[in-house]
Design a protein that fits this description.
The protein has five helices and eight strands, in the order ββαββαβαβαββα. It is of the alpha/beta class and about 210 residues long. It has two domains: about 60 residues, Ubiquitin-like (UB roll) (Roll), CATH 3.10.20; about 90 residues, Translation Initiation Factor IF3 (2-Layer Sandwich). The chain has a four-stranded mixed beta sheet with strand order 2-1-4-3. Strands 5-6-8-7 form a four-stranded mixed beta sheet, with helices on one face. Strand 5, helix 3 and strand 6 form a beta-alpha-beta unit. The longest helix has 18 residues.
Length: about 210
C-alpha cells in the first residue's frame, strides 16, 4: 500500500502519509505501526507499542470470557432420612444456584429397603420445591432412576403465578343515610324541609289582621 492514514500514539489524527514515512515516524519513537482498519481507503494505521497493545487485547478477551455466564446443571443430594434442618440448607443452596442462572437437580438416594417407600423421597423434593416456588418451577417432576429419585428445578415462575391478577382494593362500604334531626337531637317533623331539594326550616308569611 503506497500510503496510509496515520493515528498518533495519543489518538491524534496525523493524516495521510506515504507508508515508508509512517514507518520511519514510528521507528523514530521506538514504536510500531499497526494496521487497525485494513478495509478503509486508505488503510488506517496507528503508532503504538505493539506488545502493550497485544496485552491489552488479551486482557479484554479474558475479561469478556469471565463475564460470560454459562448455565450449568447443579446437583444436590438428599437421603430419605434427611431432617428438616438439612432440607432448609439444601433449599438455600438451590436458591443460590437458581439466582446465578443455573438449573438444579435434586437427587434422593436409597439404601436397602428405602426404595420401597418412594413417597418419602417425593415429599422431600416437593418440600424443597415449595420453598423455592417464588423463583423456580419444576422442569422435570420427581421420578425414579436406578436406586434413587430425582427432579429438576429451573428459574422461573409458574403459569398460575404469572396469570394471577393483582389484588384489588375493596370499595368502601356504603353508609346508610341518616334522617335529619332537629335542634333537640330528635328526628325533624315531616313538612319542615323545603320541597325543592334544599334543607332548612320552612317559613310562613305573617298574616295581616
Amino acid at each position: 500500500m503506497p500510503e496510509v492514514r496515520v493515528i498518533g500514539e495519543d489518538g491524534e489524527q496525523i493524516g495521510v502519509l506515504p507508508t515508508s514515512e509512517a514507518l520511519e515516524m514510528a521507528k523514530a519513537k521506538d514504536l510500531n505501526l499497526v494496521e487497525v482498519a485494513p478495509n478503509a481507503v486508505p488503510p488506517v494505521c496507528r503508532i503504538l507499542d505493539f506488545g502493550k497493545f497485544k496485552y491489552e487485547e488479551e486482557k479484554k478477551e479474558r475479561q469478556a470470557k469471565k463475564n460470560q455466564h454459562t448455565s450449568e446443571l447443579k446437583e444436590l443430594r438428599l437421603r430419605p432420612r434427611t431432617d428438616e434442618h438439612d432440607l432448609a440448607v439444601r433449599a438455600r443452596a438451590a436458591r443460590k444456584f437458581l439466582e446465578d442462572g443455573h438449573r438444579v437437580r435434586l437427587v434422593v438416594r436409597f439404601r436397602g429397603r428405602e426404595s420401597t417407600h418412594p413417597e418419602v423421597a417425593r415429599a422431600q423434593i416437593n418440600a424443597i420445591a415449595e420453598r423455592l416456588m417464588d423463583i423456580a418451577v419444576v422442569e422435570r417432576a420427581p421420578e425414579m432412576e436406578g436406586r434413587g429419585m430425582y427432579a429438576i428445578l429451573a428459574r422461573g415462575r409458574s403459569r398460575e403465578q404469572q396469570q394471577q391478577p393483582p389484588q384489588q382494593q375493596r370499595p368502601p362500604a356504603a353508609r346508610p343515610a341518616q334522617a335529619p334531626t332537629g335542634g333537640n337531637g330528635r328526628p325533624a317533623a315531616a313538612g319542615t324541609g323545603a320541597t325543592n331539594g334544599t334543607t332548612g326550616p320552612s317559613t310562613t308569611a305573617p298574616t295581616q289582621a
